[in-house]
Amino acid sequence: xxxxxxxxxxxxxxxxxxxxxxxxxxxxxxxxxxxxxxxxxxxxxxxxxxxxxxxxxxxxxxxxxxxxxxxxxxxxxxxxxxxxxxxxxxxxxxxxxxxxxxxxxxxxxxxxxxxxxxxxxxxxxxxxxxxxxxxxxxxxxxxxxxxxxxxxxxxxxxxxxxxxxxxxxxxxxxxxxxxxxxxxxxxxxxxx
Length: 192
Ligand code: AMP
What we know:
Layout (H helix, E strand, L loop, with lengths): L2 E4 L6 H12 L2 E4 H10 L3 H11 L6 H13 L7 E4 L5 H13 L6 E6 L2 H15 L7 H15 L2 H6 L4 E5 L4 H17 L1
Parallel strand pairs: 1-3, 1-4, 2-3, 4-5
Bound molecules: adenosine monophosphate.
Adenosine monophosphate (AMP) binds next to α2 and α3.
């Protein structure tokens, strides 16, 4: 089973993906985490991605797709993937479908976590204090990330709706309530 989690920055994708990967024995791929790891270790990829991430922009598709493919290739024995933060553009979505198809795989389900903007801003600023993430500490950068999402990522809703694979859930309640909603949706899909 291959699942994509959508949602604006701060919507809880990472937190929920951590539960889902354990419950369904999936490999969690977070492109944001991979970029941050590379930035921390000052790798070439980290250096290339840093200026984009620090200013709240998306990293160019070519670089992101290469990284994603590498992560999938490293986990070919996996029972499935939970993609968190990928795809974020139509190009990435098309590429992911093509790449999986070559391996006789496909995306089974995409789920968007819906949260009001003001709640997101409060959550992100709190995370910035706790984690020290530069892109979580500045309202201007946060706004830029929302703009990127609205301009480039939200159109993927139609892309997956056309494949009957798009679902939304309310991501505003407690972590456990959102987790229960997600599990209910995934189980229903598994049994259909
Ligand atoms: P995240 O932790 O998922 O919010 O990602 C943090 C930052 O990493 C984003 O604001 C982007 O700059 C970059 N990033 C993560 N995933 C992608 C992606 N699929 N495409 C382009 N940039 C990405």
